[in-house]
């Protein structure tokens, strides 16, 4: 069987020594899409739109710091604790979605507390574009030929020529389109039936669906952590469990209300 060969240049544009990467473009698109959604949601629900920009700053700072620290401490703690200055070397790559999730929650908690906004209402709405955020980021990983899957002879296999000549599961695409489908579902429910659900429902459904998908796709993904666990699960799967359980709790809480 012949497989599709992927050899895209991760650099979108170059100006002398300066390079603009597809990952950076897609990451920016992810953040801006979230901003535009929140502007629309605030207007739709008659919230104070002047609070969007300061809360947006809290969210972005939380995502970036959390994602970077998550990568360093969750996936290669021995190296980064031995070379702490390397934590700041973000240009070398390395962001973790679980850390980004924790970071944005903490950032928005601080922002909501400062500006006296209902924190759970805020993260409940932000969960919807966050699924789209995941789509953009995983497409960026695809452009970088990173976070690939195990070798496979199935029709879904793609040869990432920058890595080797083996057809592999394109796990970035599996995740990307799973997150896109979740976003479409959440957006439709919010637009048409939001008054049927209590606060916490959208965040809970987001956590359950996203981290169930992440848990299952990890079975065909190459190991990302620099260490080996003896539990039969990957680091990504173990980190997904508390997020999934938190989502179940939010759904039950929303239903009881």
> What would you call the shape?
globular
Strand residue content: 5-15%
Report the sheet with the most strands, covering strand number, pairing sense and barrel closure. 3 strands, mixed
Mean pLDDT: 89
Strand order of the largest sheet: 1-4-5
Class computed from helices, strands and strand pairing: mainly alpha
Helix content: 55-70%
List the helices and strands in order.
EEEHHHHHEEHHH
The total count of strands amounts to 5
Task: Name the poorly predicted regions.
Answer: none
Rg (C-alpha, Å): 19 Å
Separation of the first and last Cα atoms: 54 Å
Q: How many structural units, i.e. domains?
A: 1
Note the total helix count: 8
In short:
This protein is mainly α and 257 residues long. It contains eight helices and five strands; from the N terminus they run E-E-E-H-H-H-H-H-E-E-H-H-H.
């Amino acid at each position: 069987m012949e497989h599709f060969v992927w050899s895209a240049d991760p650099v979108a544009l170059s100006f002398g020594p300066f390079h603009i990467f597809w990952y950076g473009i897609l990451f920016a698109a992810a953040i801006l899409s979230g901003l535009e959604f929140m502007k629309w949601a605030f207007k739709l629900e008659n919230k104070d739109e002047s609070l969007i920009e300061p809360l947006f700053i809290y969210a972005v700072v939380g995502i970036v710091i959390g994602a970077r620290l998550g990568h360093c401490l969750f996936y290669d703690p021995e190296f980064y604790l031995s070379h702490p200055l390397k934590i700041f070397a973000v240009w070398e790559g390395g962001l973790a979605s679980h850390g980004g999730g924790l970071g944005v929650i903490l950032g928005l908690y601080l922002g909501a507390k400062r500006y006296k906004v209902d924190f759970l209402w805020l993260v409940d709405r932000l969960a919807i574009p966050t699924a789209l955020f995941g789509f953009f980021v995983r497409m960026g990983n695809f452009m970088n030929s990173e976070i690939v899957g195990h070798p496979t002879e199935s029709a879904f296999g793609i040869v990432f020529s920058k890595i080797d000549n083996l057809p592999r599961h394109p796990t970035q695409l599996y995740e990307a389109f799973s997150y896109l489908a979740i976003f479409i579902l959440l957006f439709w429910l919010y637009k048409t039936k939001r008054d049927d659900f209590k606060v916490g429902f959208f965040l809970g459904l987001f956590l359950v669906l996203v981290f169930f998908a992440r848990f299952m796709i990890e079975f065909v993904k190459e190991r990302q952590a620099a260490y080996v666990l003896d539990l039969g699960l990957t680091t990504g799967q173990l980190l997904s469990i508390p997020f999934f359980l938190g989502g179940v709790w939010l759904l039950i809480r929303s239903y009881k209300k």
